Amino acid sequence: MNIISWNVNGIRALERKGQFNWLLEKEPGIFCLQETKSRPEQLSKTLTSPPGYHAYFSSHTFKKGYSGTALYTREKPDSVLRGIGIEEFDAEGRIIMAVFNSLLVINVYFPNGGGGPERLDYKLRFYDAFLNYCTLQREKGFEIILMGDVNTAHEEVDLARPKANEKNTGFLPEERAWVDELVRSGFTDAFRSKHPTRVDSYTYWDQKTFARDRNVGWRIDYFFITPRILSALVDVTHHTDITGSDHCPIEVVLKDIF
After folding, report:
1. Nearest CA-CA partner of 25 in 48, 2, 56, 43
2. Considering 78, 90, 128, 149, which one is annotated as catalytic?
3. pLDDT tens-digit map of 5-23
4. Does the 2-254 domain belong in CATH 2.40.360.10?
5. What pTM does this model have?
6. Are 94 and 109 in contact (CB under 8 A)?
7. Nearest residue to 252 via CA among 218, 220, 221
8. CA dihedral defined by 33, 176, 210, 31, rounded to 10 degrees?
9. Is-catalytic flag, 121?
10. Where are the domains of the chain?
11. Closest CA to 145 of 176, 108, 177, 119
């Protein structure tokens, strides 16, 4: 089966640009969107009820047009969860999860840490609380597919200009250290497991500077997977030719896991 993750930078804008159709044409078993910037009542029937899919949404509770996540799946999940039970992190609609037997599929739009020290602190506390949650779920016996916009480039190879960004959020030592911790806890970066030495492969480009035209990008969108899922991993693709957002879709192909 294939699973697609995409920070769409506005799901309604994606539909207007015709790129939501690309997702439906790919026919993934699951696709997850971040930064939807909407609530379900604002969406067309195409977005809320695409043929063949069960659709679920998590939205910011008080700020319209900001954050938000969506999860679409052909297989109806046993349950759908929104958030990790901590109000300050759940209020922004950044986490939506689906349970399929002993598999937990998690879609996350992590905070970006910009806007000053308070927001960076929020991001780091979000990171820690989220990892604690994942650890508890694994202790319960869940295998996990974690996907989304992590808003941090892990290693120097994961962005075009590492030296110029050493003091910028998204590549700070403390942000990168959390990704190290995630990996040490038992998660594998799916893309690097299949393409350990690939360079110049990014998922985000700044639109204001037309960075995509020059491929001056960042790899900040990931699939992280636990051991049983890793054993089923076939490949990971960055669809860099697909526009419609400042991020590109990323896709994993897995042997049947249901």
Report:
1. 2
2. 149
3. 999 999 999 999 999 999 9
4. no
5. 0.97
6. yes
7. 221
8. -10
9. no
10. 2-254
11. 108
